Amino acid sequence: MKRRIKASKLKGTGMAVFIAVAITALVLIFISVYRVVKIYQISRYTDVKVDGTVKTRSSKTSNRLVEIYQKSAPVDVVTGDANASPRSVSLVFSGLSSDETMNAKILKMVKARHINAAFAVPAIQARGNSGFIKKIKKSGCTVISGGLNEEEQNAKAVKTLCSHLYKSHEILGGETGGKVQTLYVPGMKGDIVTLKAAAAGGYNQMVLPADEDIVTRSTFKNKSEAAAYVQQLTGQRIVIISLDSKAEPVNQEPTVESAKPAIDKQSDLDDKKSKVEKTVTLDQTVKWVLDALNDQKVEMDPLDKVKVQHAADYIGANLKDDADQAVVYRSALTNEKRVALCVRGLSSRAQYDRLAKLLKRYKAGCAFFVTSATNRQLKKQIHADGYALENAGETGMASRDVQKMYQEVVGGAQSLQKMGANPKAYLVYDPQCLPQIRAACFAVGQIPVEPQNPKNMTKGAFYLYDAQDAADIKALLKQARRGGYQVESVGALIDASGTVPELTKAELNKRRRANAGKRAVYHTEVPTTERALAFTFNNLGNTAVNLDVANRLKSHGAKGTFFVTFDEMRTEGDTLEQLMAMGNEIGLDFQSNSTYTEDYDGMARYLHDCLTYMKWRYNKKPKVIMLSADYAKNKGMLEAVHAYHMKAVGASRSMITSGTAKTTDADLPKIFDQLKAVRFTRGGLEYFNLDYYQNDKDKRDGEKTVTGDMVDKAIGQYVDAIAFVSPTTNQIEDGSRYKIKTVSELFDLKKVYKLSPKKQHAVTLHKDVLGKMNSSKKQFAYMKDHYVGSNFVVNDKKLPGFTNREIKQLDKVGRLTDDKVLFLTFDDWGTDQSINKILYVLKKHHVKATFFVLTQHVDENPNLLRAIAADGHEIACHSNTHVPLSDANRDYSRYDSLTGKEQQAMRKDLVTSYNKLNRYVGDVKVGGRKALSLNFRPPTLAVSKAGLYQVFDVGFRYAVSGNVSTNDYKRTDLNTYLNVMQNGSPSDEDDFKVTNGSVIVMHMTENAKYTAQMLDEMIPKWQSEGYRFERVDQAVDEFTPRRERERN
């Protein structure tokens, strides 16, 4: 009995298990069938390629959608209200993470906070996430459309865009069990084409957030940054949080590739970009934002409570001269032999028939640009014949009023759409209205075209002719046939474009042969005497920094050169256009990879692709390319740069130094203290890395940046410091300022020079001027007649080697004449900060002077030496290393003659010094007078017979000391300095008085800080007293020694 009961129980249990298994199987079968049906629903519309991209299949539906599009009003725009109060936020999550656990975790966080968020899900992602879609709806959140595959912003054809949106609407309706009326697709523009396409796809409204309200996993590094972002939110905002990292600001840049796509090399330069570890997870970012919204008590609105604008109001509100600008097509980038024919001004059927006959004979396509006023029947005939109708506007008249320009473009487009045409392009009639045309075209979704009619036919060229110019059109068609070019409509060519024409091996070799092995000179400064320098920048990855720096430059009346890579010029178009609009220059920044190799061929391809793209996209031809010091050693790369007629430049210095990535504004004073030895120069190329400071990484457009502050302070500390400050007004005199110009402007200036020094024979080791004289008497007579002494080198203690008899015959005064002439002289060497002030004052008062140059450091700043000469001043020698002509004891009370070894060392020093001067200014003549003279000033004014012998024996003509030794390097007070220069210094001090023929000894060093201001005051006074000013070499040949010392 027990066995039967047990068996009965087992039998019942087995039946239950069987039933459970059967039910489970049926459920699984149902789910599988459901998924197959859903997959089939999508597969009817799409093909998924092996690379993961999606291609929609064409169908009759697409043509019907275009008809609906043409008749549809644009959908409304959900955009928020910047002026609303109190502030509120509507959250939209864009896309889904590939990690299902992450999606669930984020939904749980949203649900726990009772937030009615919207999830913008692409139809392709919804296909495999049906369960999660249901969970979204069950949680109280909303599902909106993320398009078909989040790629709609790349659709070139209206038909494709409408088809994508329609299919996404159908699929998501099936997945959610209801109609999805709201659309958000990352990167989609709010132009009229997009809004009408959304309507054709079945949507009622489209979400268009502000660019700054798009958050990705990498937006914030920590909770504090998320809180700071929320803190600055005002009004009613839509915050997009990307779950699949596809959300991004609108980018109107066309997709363009090089003919040979390459794999980029990974840079190993620590200072190229500061590296920040990106370890933030998606759920961390979401939690930070949600916590900040909660902590700051920000009101949370569901998306259906956010302000909606009619499309016309939205477009009108955003339509300004500085609004988003459509890209101008002057040609198309293609690697195929195709050109576009555009015809305008069609006025009669007879004109058209004549052209149609030509087109048919040559099997050519054509785009006829027509206005609303063009005969409707004629337009229908053109359309029926298969030729493209494009937009010449409503009236064919451009306007500088952007609202009128919008009406012109949209009116022309709509008149064509009503008759079944699908215009893509608007013809630019008046380039002076280009900003307004581009803004209007962006809003309307038209492509502004500006054909260039190149004489030599090239791939992708646009040609424009008046309808009456049938002969010219025929000639073009013949030329195309001979060259093997296909002639087609501008719209068809634009649709097929996107590849930079390849530089063939034959073209590469032809250019190389024509260049004949010449190499570009690598410049770390521009050889110029102009009061100007350049600020250079690269790494344009941060728009906020780029524009902040440009605005800082503009506030100082300055312009910069921004060097961009091929990648940056294709992705940062809006930024580049803003930079150029402010007068800045765009140069090229070389970036090597598998195609752009570090040799002639790689550099030639890089330059070809960059220059082709820049001409096409921006109608600009860069003139300079930035190379690293290592690249500058590569002969093949420099050869390619020269072959493309470009300048190769590096940097005088990097103003942003290694190890300072974490710099804040508060750190800048310390940074500048570390850089206090920096001195800017004429022709200098001062380099700033725009993407180095970590504290700038998350700055938003319009915010001040550390890099911007760095540029500002550099101008104040290093540029303004070079200028002359008036002693009377205490203000900088504008004429003395150094201008910050673009690199190309520096190269284009008339004051750029090229060194071509001839070997000099005037001063040499074996000149032996005195040695060839046959007696010591003649030697002394020569020294006596060519030594201009001073009033404190007068006895045997300071004139070693001379006999008392000889000392009596030497000059002990230092004046050159008894006429009312003064000789301003400057010793040693300095920086732009000291010498520019002197040069400015001399030019201001029309005075020429003599500069006795210590040449040890002139190689570091040849532009400054050249500038002195170019201003018409005399360049004379003061030795290379400031070696005195006699040896002094410790307290300078007695001097001894030089030893034989010292004499030989001095001889070499003198020749070295003169050779340097000859190299940089030996060819300079101003007003017929050579800048470089054979005059010499003894260092410290100390002399000996042996020292002077060497000076004259190597070839110097005169050794000139002077009667007024100002000791300006010791001056601590301008007023005292002015007093002694006007009234003289007593014998117990400096013992001088400025009088007729005075040779005034000053210095061009920075420690002689009052010299320029003193001269600015005294030169007019001396001129009012009847004095004139001359260079030493203008009077020295008339010099006669004055044996008796003159006291003040």
From TrEMBL:
Keywords of this entry: Membrane, Transmembrane, Transmembrane helix
An example GO BP is: carbohydrate metabolic process
Give TM regions: 12-34
Show the InterPro entries listed in the entry: Glyco_hydro/deAcase_b/a-brl, NODB_dom, Polysacc_deacetylase_ArnD
Report whether Transmembrane helix shows up as a keyword of the record: yes
PROSITE patterns in the record, alphabetically?
Answer: NODB
What positions does the domain NodB homology occupy?
A: 820-1030
Q: Which CDD domains match?
A: CE4_NodB_like_6s_7s
**GO MF, one annotated term:** hydrolase activity, acting on carbon-nitrogen (but not peptide) bonds
SUPFAM superfamilies named among the record's database cross-references: Glycoside hydrolase/deacetylase
Q: Which domain of life is it from?
A: Bacteria
Which residue ranges are recorded for the region named Disordered?
250-270
The name this protein carries in UniProt is: Polysaccharide deacetylase family protein
